[in-house]
Write a structure and sequence with these properties.
Ubiquitin-like (UB roll); 2 domains; 16% strand; globular
Length: 158
């Protein structure tokens, strides 16, 4: 197979690379860009650990080829932090103890960031609905929901 040239924006920086056509976006982020916050769990799109934001939408990076991302704008968990420290969502996760082992946390953070960008007034029920696509075996979901509800105020641009 012939390698494919791609250009994309990752965490607000333009990246150009040549990749194998069947390399997943998760593999590209982890191996080529050393952005290891994107975790690989099931590699079937079920667990949500590999969730990133592609053109504003939460996407399972294990199900997308890097070549498909050509021209896209991507935000990983590393790109969520503010220049002066943690993002409001990350601070709320820390405050509410919404993480333990941390394996699922990057995917949950990116999923919830995408939700709050789109729906800053999301209800607890809506958060639960969207969060159902992310599996967490350590923390439980109540602290996560509390953290997201608290952080939602920082997404309101009313």
């Amino acid at each position: 197979m012939t390698d494919v040239a791609i250009t994309l924006t990752v965490n607000r920086q333009q990246v150009t690379a040549t990749v194998e056509p069947r390399l997943t976006l998760a593999g590209f982020l982890r191996r080529h860009l050393q952005l290891t916050g994107t975790h690989l769990g099931c590699e079937h799109g079920v667990c949500g650990a590999c969730t990133i934001i592609v053109n504003g939408a939460a996407v399972r990076s294990c199900l997308m080829f890097a070549a498909q991302a050509d021209g896209s704008e991507i935000i990983t968990v590393e790109g969520l932090a503010a220049a002066d420290g943690l993002s409001p969502l990350q601070r709320a996760f820390r405050k509410h103890h919404a993480l333990q082992c941390g394996f699922c946390t990057p995917g949950i953070l990116t999923t919830m960031h995408a939700l709050l960008q789109e729906e800053p007034h999301a209800s607890a029920e809506r958060i639960r609905e969207v969060l159902a696509g992310n599996i967490c075996r350590c923390t439980g979901y109540l602290p996560i929901i509390e953290a997201v509800l608290e952080a939602a105020a920082s997404y309101n641009n009313d």
